[in-house]
Design brief:
- The protein is of the alpha/beta class.
- It has 3 domains: 146 residues, Rossmann fold; 45 residues, no CATH class; 37 residues, SIR2/SIRT2 'Small Domain' (2-Layer Sandwich), CATH 3.30.1600.10.
- It contains 10 helices and 9 strands.
- The strands form 2 sheets. The protein has a 6-stranded parallel beta sheet, with helices on both faces.
- Helix 6 runs parallel beside helix 10.
- The longest helix has 14 residues.
- The model has no long low-confidence stretch (mean pLDDT 93).
């Protein structure tokens, strides 16, 4: 596979790679994405509202109990484990190849696999805080089904996930760091994202190099800019790349 060989050679030669990951990286850990045929947006049977409305700021504020019913059953996968893609990225970071993983995912699987420098554009289900006193809570506290709405055990305020809901701004500091890493990178690897959700997708525009690697099951609006396009599962491809780069002397 010529494109795979090209990707392997690019990764072998670089020590300044940024990985940008989306939902397609986590689907191999049995976490559904949003837009595919089996994604969350197609699952509207139980709820009166479309998912994109339920996970909005205004819905959270006005219908907190319904928000949590949806969130706990559709957005959190406590048994999910890192897959081959997460593991390969962590190994490449450990080897000094990858400088940062920028992710649109909120599942924490990059960190679970061993990645150290992870920039979470949309936050994480593993971080939660009281909206009143800012006390922090773990995921188990929020997932306690005996409480329809998680309440702070200190001040009685509502506890919310530290995730970016629709109608909310991305964290400026994380966005700024992401832009800096992408601008300075030698190689940008885009994995498992259709690059249609803004402002996250617009980060690709800050890449100044000529080694853009795109690994996604379907085509993206940025295919015309990529030096390597592989339409396949991220886990399979990344594990092969990591294996060749880290465990052999050459192709």
């Amino acid at each position: 596979m010529d494109s795979l060989k090209k990707a392997i050679n690019i990764v072998k030669e670089s020590f300044n790679i940024i990985a940008f990951t989306g939902a397609g990286v986590s689907t191999e850990s049995n976490i559904p994405d949003f837009r595919s045929a089996n994604g969350l947006y197609s699952n509207k049977k139980k709820y009166k509202y479309p998912p994109e409305h339920i996970i909005s700021h205004s819905f959270f504020m006005e219908h907190t109990e319904e928000f949590y019913d949806y969130y706990r059953n559709n957005m959190v996968y406590m048994d999910a484990k890192p897959n081959k893609c997460h593991i390969a990225l962590a190994e490449l970071e450990k080897a000094g190849k990858i400088k940062a993983v920028i992710t649109q995912n909120i599942d924490g699987l990059h960190q679970a696999a061993g990645s150290k420098n992870v920039l979470e554009l949309h936050g994480s289900v593993n971080r939660n805080y009281c909206m009143k006193c800012k006390k922090k809570f773990d995921l188990e506290y929020v997932m306690d089904m005996s409480k329809p709405i998680p309440i702070c055990d200190e001040c009685g305020g509502i506890v919310r996930p530290d995730v970016v809901l629709y109608e909310e701004q991305l964290d400026y500091d994380i966005l700024d760091k992401s832009v800096s890493y992408i601008r300075a990178s030698d190689v940008l690897m885009i994995l498992g994202t259709s690059l249609v959700v803004y402002p996250a997708a617009g980060l690709v525009d800050y890449y100044r190099g000529d080694k853009l690697i795109l690994i996604n099951k379907s085509s993206t609006p940025y295919d015309y800019r990529a030096q390597v396009i592989i339409n396949d599962k991220c886990g399979e491809i990344m594990s092969r790349i990591a294996d060749k780069v880290l465990n052999s002397s050459g192709e």
